[in-house]
Amino acid sequence: MADSQKKLTIIKPDDWHLHLRDHNALRTTVPFACRGFGRGIIMPNLVPPVVTVDLAIKYKQRILANIPDSSSWSPLMVLFLTDLTSPEEIYKAHDSKAIFGAKLYPAGATTNSETGVTDLRKLTKTFEAMEEVGMVLQIHGESTEKGVDIFDREPVFIEKTLKPLVEKFPELKISLEHITTLDSVEYIMNQSDTVYGSITPQHLLFNRNDMLVGGIRPHLFCLPILKRERHQQSLIKAATSGNKKFFLGTDSAPHSKDKKENACGCAGCYSHLSAIELYAEIFDQLNSLDQLENFASKNGPDFYGLPYNDSFITLKKHKWTIPSSIKYMDTTLVPLGADMQLNWQLVQ
């Protein structure tokens, strides 16, 4: 609800896709992940990846140790699927009450995904178990087939991989993660209530021209890569429409400045420094602030079968500038939108 267009109070949001890394990185990433959010789906592509319930629980304990005392934020853990993930591990994950999904990375699709899935047919029994217990399959929806243009990986994946998967497992709950194309928006809208999609701030705020015109901007390089403006506009329309099938997932992914600004820069944008404000910026531009609560606070819990958070956040209309960098372990990290002026700020 808005107060004379100067304040906006909404149910505390959740982030349904984020990367925290591990060990010393958690000292930075966890407190920022708590900023303005009630819960977060934690991506499992560590080195080594989180392939078992036992590993997930140990990782969760490392995360919990870095949550500020003043925060009630909760990490929601995820399994990393491989060709060898068994139905028994899915049942164990369901019984643990600590695991909220299993992540499908096509092998080699993105950061630390080399040991991901090479052939979905090897996981038939595993998907059947997920379907049975109602566990969400979170999909990095890009084809890794040799010769597929990087800007076409998402629609190729939908056509060749996702459509057959949905047909074979019609009751399997699927979150198509960090969607980037009109193809994904249309596919999700035309499917049953078992298929949803998360949307990042970078894919709402920027397109490939922002990354490439006038020189390469490595801090906008992410996977899936930024697409044409028409795809960006489709995502904006989907996010701000009030459609229940789209929800917030930042894909916030920290990489130090030196690893982004080199001959082979890492893929990923770190948005948690100002995540909810970045979304508010887009919704405000579209005169859709009344839909921010659905997108950020309601649609995700509805899909995952979880209650809404029982607390609220307030954003105030106030100009401020995202810092150019922050301290990250023994180096620095450049946040998404560094030096960008925003019109909304979270009231801490």
Draw up the topology in text.
Layout: E1 2-3, E2 7-11, E3 15-18, H1 26-33, E4 39-42, H2 53-64, E5 74-80, H3 87-96, E6 99-104, H4 124-133, E7 137-139, H5 153-168, E8 174-176, H6 182-189, E9 195-199, H7 201-205, H8 208-212, H9 229-240, E10 246-248, H10 257-260, H11 275-285, H12 292-304, E11 312-321, E12 326-328, E13 331-333, E14 341-346
Parallel strand pairs: 3-4, 4-5, 5-6, 6-7, 7-8, 8-9, 9-10
Antiparallel strand pairs: 1-2, 2-11, 11-14, 12-13
Helix pairs in contact: 3-4
Q: Identify the CATH architecture.
A: Alpha-Beta Barrel
Mean pLDDT over the residues: 97
Category by helix and strand content:
alpha/beta
Structurally, the number of domains stands at 1
Could you say what the CATH topology is called? TIM Barrel
Written account of the structure:
There is one protein chain. The protein is an alpha/beta fold and 348 residues long. It has one domain (2-346): Metal-dependent hydrolases (TIM Barrel, Alpha-Beta Barrel), CATH 3.20.20. The protein contains twelve helices and 14 strands. It has helices at 26-33, 53-64, 87-96, 124-133, 153-168, 182-189, 201-205, 208-212, 229-240, 257-260, 275-285, 292-304, and strands at residues 2-3, 7-11, 15-18, 39-42, 74-80, 99-104, 137-139, 174-176, 195-199, 246-248, 312-321, 326-328, 331-333, 341-346. The strands form three sheets. An eight-stranded parallel beta sheet has the order 3-4-5-6-7-8-9-10. A four-stranded antiparallel beta sheet has the order 1-2-11-14. A two-stranded antiparallel ribbon has the order 12-13. Strand 3, helix 1 and strand 4 (39-42) form a beta-alpha-beta unit. The protein is globular, with a radius of gyration of 19 Å. The chain starts with a strand and ends with a strand. The model has no long low-confidence stretch (mean pLDDT 97).
